[in-house]
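Write out this protein's structure.
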Amino acid sequence: MKAFEALTEQIIPGRWGEIHPLTDSELNTDGKGSPDVGVLAISLAAPTEVCAKTHRICNPEHEQDSWGLDAYWAGVVPLLHTYGTPQPDARSANLHTPVPESVLALIARHRQQ
């Protein structure tokens, strides 16, 4: 439980207090079957390649009955790749060279997505 809390709070501070309490069956503390949730630690220091895959099989009706779906927010926060404000190198800044149209267009295309 402490690993779940630490991981959650590292990613989104304050989120742990907003999620539904984990059940015994989710953690497999009831001894029946495999846990529904888990924390995996992988050392990236030694291997030259790392691959991870997750797969979730769930019954949404069971989940709703088990912890009151309407009482807790659930969803996905997309991780987006975007471009920031162009930062000229010192020479361009000193010459007051404008940002090229191609660079501005690239940024505009990605901000619209």
